[in-house]
Amino acid sequence: MNARTRFLIAAAVLGLLMTGPFLLTVAILFGDLQEAERTAIVDILLPRLPIGTLMTLMGFILGLQVLRGLFKHYVRGLLRMAETLRLMLGANRNFRVTPEGPPEVCELARAANDLAQQRDELLTDVEAQIARAKASVEEEKNRLAALMSELSMGVVVCNLDGRILLYNNRARLQFKALSQGPTSMSGGALIGLGRSIFSILERGQITHALENIQERLRKGSAEPSANFITSTRSGQLLRAQMAPVLRTVVLDEGEEDCGEDGAQEITGYVLTIENITRSFERDAQRDQVMQSLTDGSRASLGSVRAAVETLADNPDMEPELRERFVGIIRDEATRMSERLESTTAEFADSLKTRWPLEDMLGIDLVTAAQRRIEDRLKLMTKQEDLDDSLWIRADSFSLIQAMTFLAARLLDHYEIRELRFRLSAEGKMAFVDLIWSGTPVSSETLYTWELENMTVAGEASPLTLRDVIDRHGGEIWYQRDKAAHRAYFRIVLPVAAMPAVEAQPQQLRGGSRPEYYDFDLFAARDASIDLDRKLSELAYSVFDTETTGLEPSAGDEIIQIGAVRAVNGRLLRQEIFDQLIDPRIPLKPEGIPIHGITEDMVRGQPTLDVVLPAFHEFCSETVLVAHNAAFDMRFLQLKEESIGVRFSQPVLDTLLLSAVIHPNQESHKLESIAERLGINVIGRHTALGDAFVTGEVFLKMVPLLADMGILTLRQALEAAEKTYYARVKY
Questions:
Q1: Who contacts 84 (Cβ-Cβ below 8 Å, separation ≥6)?
Q2: Which among 56, 71, 65 has a CA at the least distance from the CA of 21?
Q3: DSSP letter string over 135-161?
Q4: One domain for residues 136 and 207
């Protein structure tokens, strides 16, 4: 029962107390009288009735005023004090109750402030002890993060679900360069704490690399790792090396152990990433120049050869004609020399560069191909005559795609029941044989398959089988074993020397501040937006807009969007979105002093049809948070149809949540909420500045909502919808 209901009940009780005795007296006086006696009494009382009624009414009104004053000073005052006490206990320890109202309430406020002061002193002492205990752990974490931040290669650490736990500045710059949007919009669009690495790298290759690592762990490898080449959505080519993050699991008695102290469980992985697009493009350009050099030299050599043969066949040639032929030889030789010197100077550093292939055990390649074929095609596979010490140089992902493609074609066209793998070597070449029994395949059929784009179980590759073979500098052919009534495809690959692993001591360097990490996310799993997930487990995009005016439906436009991500209770100030927008309409003069954005600042900036898709990507897989969100969302919703971008994720409004947490406070403006929660307001009335303040306010609201029993996203949305401010429309 809320305070207003209690007040109405008290007023009704007061009315009964005021009128009850009068009605009871009338009932007693008139209960046992005869008709004549009642008439006589009525004649006496009737002239005095208005005066009595008026006095009763005045007494009732006076009683209500007294009751209202008592309610305001005691009930409402104590409720405000209770809200303030909750702030002191949770969000703002420095907040104090203002002594106001009756002396008893003021005395209670002073006592509460004294208790809060004592509590703060105790908490300060406890926090100091905790800080000292955590110092060594934080130092180790900071050293690791600082080391990674200074590496020349991009480093990304992920948990098993592909959620990013750490990335260094090099990785941030690399992925920022991959963004196709304007520079100011690409700061956090591709990489960020809690984001999925699969939005950047192909999921199948990550899974394949993990499978290779797990297979090597099962074989007892002390330092398992995997390498692969991949491309991004923007067409950039990346070289990645994956190393697992391992945790020792103590096994129960009777379970199989694979180590001295327990089994090694993969909890995540470290990716070191290098952008090789430029070198690959340079290789392609080099090949073109080499081709041009070859073609040009062929013509020059032909001219020189013809001139030399003519001179040899005509020893008595006239001097003038002989000089002409010698001049041809001299000119062609000079041109060839100049062409060769130019090519050598331009490509001296890249002449040794080849398509990047990685060393791997051949048996690992075969095992991975078997798993993929069995999972995708439900085709039985077996091994025979495998050389388990053979190392090959290969791009494992494309090779496994090629072998799966061949198996799919055999299954579809020849209905084979089993596929066998054989691995052998001869000299510097390795042979991977795919063997089957049944109908033979013609060489013409294999030639046709070589030129098809590889598509298996709905997964398409832009490469053909011939592309994969040529990439490895290998060959593929078809052979029959008539005696055994079998046939096989033989894939010829280059052999690699077994890599030597040398243990080297690591030198940790301290002194650098770590940049972008949150190791607490190792335990995080599913990051989908589930309405029944806890607020503390979700990722948020806190945003704000600046506009030409306050009437979105009347033609006002957005001129700036600012946003910051919040993950695991932290506001990630390095993962921001900040972009001015050209509204293509004049700015209203009365708004310029508020937001500080002028016509010159927005002129030439990207328009909303460019900015909004980039902002949509920035907000993907997160809950939107804003102050007075109905206003900002109305601007976005009006552009959904014309731009083709829809913001369908849930939206939390700090204005409504403030009304849920502090229903008895008079103001729910952003500045007032920030002051109550002890937040320093800086940079107001810029989109990014307001987003920062709103983000800090929201993060302090989450534990206050939890104290009220509002734990999940669904509960927060339902509580916000019941507030008065939820009725405001734009």
A1: 95, 96, 97, 98
A2: 56
A3: HHHHHHHHHHHHHHHT-SSEEEEEETT
A4: no
Under 8 Å between Cβ of 687 and 562: yes
For the stretch 206-225, pLDDT in tens is 888 898 888 888 887 777 88
Do residue 557 and residue 614 come from a single domain?
A: yes
Is residue 191 assigned to a domain?
A: yes
The CATH number of residue 302's host domain is 1.10.287.130
Which residue shows structure tokens 């940079």?
683
Crossing angle of the two packed helices 654-661 and 687-707, in degrees rounded to 10: 30
Beta bridge partners of 268: 159, 245
User: Per the structure block, which two tokens stand in for 409?
Assistant: 């074609």
The pLDDT assigned to 565 comes to 93
**Between 3-31 and 49-70, two packed helices, what is the crossing angle to 10 degrees?**
150
The residues annotated as belonging to the active site are 685
Range of the domain at 235: 152-250+260-276
Predicted confidence at residue 251, as pLDDT, reads 55
State the DSSP H helix or E strand holding residue 483, giving kind and residue range, or none if neither: none
Q: Could you write out the three-class secondary structure of 439-465?
A: CCCCHHHHHHHHCCEEEECCEEEEEEH
Last residue of a domain, one of 104, 128, 150: 150
How many domains are contained in the chain? 5
Residue whose token pair is 């180790």: 140
Q: Which residues contact 548 (CB under 8 A, 6 or more apart)?
A: 556, 557, 559, 583, 585, 586, 587, 588, 591
User: Which secondary structure element, helix H or strand E, spans residue 336, and what is its range?
Assistant: helix 319-347
User: Which residue in the block uniquely carries the two structure tokens 């008895």?
Assistant: 664
Number of H helices, E strands in the chain: 22, 20
Please report the beta strands in 509-631, taking only residues with DSSP state E, as ranges in sequence order. Answer: 516-517, 540-547, 558-567, 570-580, 623-626
pLDDT attached to residue 387: 87
pLDDT for the residue numbered 36: 66
> What's residue 8's pLDDT?
63
Tell me if residue 242 falls in helix, strand or coil.
strand
Q: CA-to-CA distance for 276 and 239, rounded, in angstroms?
A: 7
pLDDT at 124: 79
The 3-state DSSP composition of the chain as helix, strand, coil percent (nearest 5) reads 50, 20, 30
Instruction: Say if residues 396 and 210 touch (Cβ distance below 8 Å).
Output: no
Q: What three-state secondary structure class fits 52?
A: helix
**Residue 549 CA: distances (Å) to CA of 5, 635, 662, 692:** 41, 11, 30, 22
How many of the other CB atoms lie within 10 Å of CB of 721?
12
Which residue is listed with tokens 């691995």? Answer: 423
Amino acid at position 166, single letter? L
Q: Are residues 480 and 335 in the same domain?
A: no
Q: Encode 16-42: b = buried (16+ Cβ within 10 Å), e = exposed.
A: eebeeeeeeeeeeeeeeeeeeeeeeee
For residue 160, the domain's CATH number is: 3.30.450.20
- Residue for token pair 């007294």: 66
Q: Is residue 398 part of a domain?
A: yes
Half-sphere exposure (CA, 13 Å, Cβ side) for 320? 0
CB 155 within 8 A of CB 148: yes
Q: Are 545 and 639 in contact (CB under 8 A)?
A: no
Residues 588 and 670 in one domain: yes
Residues of the chain with pLDDT under 50: 183-184, 186-189, 257-261, 348-354, 498-515
d(CA 190, CA 200): 7
